[in-house]
TrEMBL record:
<dbReference type="GO" id="GO:0005886">
    <property type="term" value="C:plasma membrane"/>
</dbReference>
<dbReference type="Pfam" id="PF03606">
    <property type="entry name" value="DcuC"/>
</dbReference>
<keyword id="KW-1003">Cell membrane</keyword>
<keyword id="KW-1133">Transmembrane helix</keyword>
<keyword id="KW-0812">Transmembrane</keyword>
<protein>
    <submittedName>
        <fullName>Putative C4-dicarboxylate anaerobic transporter</fullName>
    </submittedName>
</protein>
<keyword id="KW-0472">Membrane</keyword>
<dbReference type="InterPro" id="IPR018385">
    <property type="entry name" value="C4_dicarb_anaerob_car-like"/>
</dbReference>
Amino acid sequence: MPDTLVIIFFVAILTSLATWVVPVGMFDSQEVQYQVDGQTKTRKVVDPHSFRILTNEAGEPEYHRVQLFTTGDERPGLMNFPLKG
């Protein structure tokens, strides 16, 4: 049986590889009102029919690819998490 950290490592590798293949998408949200004990409450929920793939100026799909290591103020790389803590 593999160690738990080995499983987590391979899941992290697979999800970071997916960022090179799967484009960035976005859902819109909407506010829903409902009644609880006679009070009207609102809640923000995702509109399931509003998904769209984000595109750049050229109309091509946008990707936020995870790098192995990064420096500076960029998004952290995959190996920055275990090494920086």
